[in-house]
Design brief:
By secondary structure, the chain is an alpha/beta fold. It has 16 helices and 16 strands. The protein has a seven-stranded parallel β-sheet with strand order 3-2-1-4-5-6-15, sandwiched between helices. The protein has a seven-stranded mixed β-sheet with strand order 10-11-12-7-13-14-16, covered by helices on one side. A two-stranded antiparallel sheet has the order 8-9.
């Protein structure tokens, strides 16, 4: 290691400040924040010592390669689609890379080149993925060390408004891109249940949501998230007949998201008829083929399009549409010529966190364990983290600090992390040091044996 660690952070969103705050504690670190808008990066950099700002358009490969080459390590806090380009640039200059995102096929395809370049590409060091791995690996190792077998593993996580601030039709507020949040609820899912692989299509995902108890005071529903099947191997639990990782939402949210999809609002394709000057009601009329743009005509058509499970559910969702402005005669601002981005701009305005409001990160693992004597036992491991209205959100803190800790360990040359290739925290050797430092920051999952 050189005497100075030059760190490039790509992105200046909510995760960046707690990550920066952790990294500037080490006097050897010099940090550059790169953002497309220079003033945004400068505003953030001004809050920290040994931190500077630059303007960078990551779509410019020459500029990206030049700036990455000037640093020891690059942290990509950009949307996951940009990570492969960042890694490819880092390979050329032998610069280490850290991301908080899942290892995608595109990232995995770069593993041989990363190994040959002698760089570490460390991924999945946020909260989900990230903190979830740290404690899943811990408990599984403890069970195995005592001669037990993990027969079933369930893990659910939700980034939500605190219950007292969730009083809107979606039961949700956006601390990050509404687009990303909504589309995450439109992914297909695979998981292992009683030894069989179960697949759920994107269109059926919200209908699969079911009540799920985590702790008193919350009314959650849960649904599967992406592909859980590989985690039987990743977590070294070949004995497990059930492996399911999923997401938490408040009761009523999945049905509302499904209604938005049924009414066309989650469509990403451009619509030639969608033009500035159209009212929200006119857009909804055109999207569902209603006879008119008045509310009565829209409601009548919505009742035909959506198969509501009850009249109470119909009234709840129609009220929510009205609250969001879908029946309004006001002109909508059309974004990118599609319904999803047009809706997302509206949701940013009506469903963002306000002053004094706080968020919640709820994460729980559940392990069904069979001990050597045949006794069955259920162990839970739970993180309930509330944001600070005057400081960091729970999501920003849990992702940013975890990323900062993992980055520092890599820079310090920790042998488990400073290995060439594409890595994720799936082993005790990687998880233990990150988890120990994370607990010093007040972020900890609490174990409980259910009786």
């Amino acid at each position: 290691m050189t005497s100075t660690n030059k760190i490039l952070i790509l992105g200046s969103g909510m995760v960046a400040p707690p990550c920066l705050e952790y990294l500037v504690r080490n006097p050897k670190n010099e940090i550059t924040i790169a953002c497309r808008t220079l003033s945004t990066a400068q505003k953030l950099a001004a809050k920290f010592t040994r931190t500077s700002a630059i303007s960078l358009d990551v779509s410019s490969t020459p500029a990206l390669e030049t700036h990455i080459a000037a640093h020891t390590l690059v942290i990509s806090l950009l949307p996951y689609l940009h990570h492969p380009a960042v890694i490819a640039a880092a390979i050329k200059s032998a610069t280490h890379v850290v991301t908080t995102s899942y290892i995608s096929p595109a990232i995995l395809a770069l593993a041989p080149a990363a190994t040959a370049a002698g760089i570490t590409v460390l991924n999945e060091v946020g909260v989900d993925p990230g903190v979830d791995h740290l404690y899943a690996i811990k408990t599984i190792a403890e069970v195995h060390a005592q001669g037990g077998k993990v027969r079933a593993f369930y893990s659910y996580c939700g980034g939500l408004p605190a219950p007292e601030h969730a009083m809107n039709p979606l039961g949700y507020k956006f601390s990050w891109s509404p687009r990303g949040a909504l589309l995450s609820q439109r992914n297909a899912a695979r998981f292992l249940l009683d030894g069989e692989v179960v697949e759920i299509s994107a269109g059926a995902l919200m209908a699969s949501a079911a009540p799920y108890f985590v702790k008193e005071g919350y009314e959650f529903v849960a649904y599967p998230n992406r592909d859980s099947v590989p985690f039987r191997e990743f977590y070294a639990i070949p004995e497990a007949h059930t492996v399911l990782r999923g997401s938490l939402r408040y009761r009523g949210n999945p049905a509302f998201v499904q209604a938005l999809a049924d009414l066309g609002w989650l469509e990403q394709d451009q619509r030639e008829w969608l033009r500035d000057g159209m009212s929200w009601a006119e857009i909804q009329q055109r999207a569902i083929g209603a006879k008119g743009a008045d509310e009565s005509a829209l409601v009548a058509r919505i009742r035909e399009v959506i198969n509501f499970e009850s009249e109470a559910e119909a009234e709840r969702i129609i009220f929510g549409m009205r609250w969001m402005g879908i029946f309004s005669s006001e002109a909508a601002t059309v974004v990118r010529g599609n319904l999803l981005d047009t809706l997302c701009l509206q949701l940013e305005m009506v469903m963002s966190f306000g002053p004094g409001e706080r968020d919640l990160v709820m994460l729980q693992h559940k392990f069904d364990v069979e001990w050597a004597d045949g006794k069955m036992e259920t162990i839970t491991s739970t993180l309930e983290l509330l944001g600070d209205p005057n400081g960091y959100s729970a999501m920003a803190l849990s992702v940013g600090v975890t990323c900062g800790i993992a980055t520092q360990l890599l820079l310090d040359g920790h042998p488990a992390l400073k290995k060439p290739g594409v890595l994720a925290p799936y082993t005790n050797e990687i998880c233990d040091p990150i988890r120990a430092l994370l607990e010093r920051e007040g972020i900890k999952m609490v174990d409980k044996v259910l009786v």
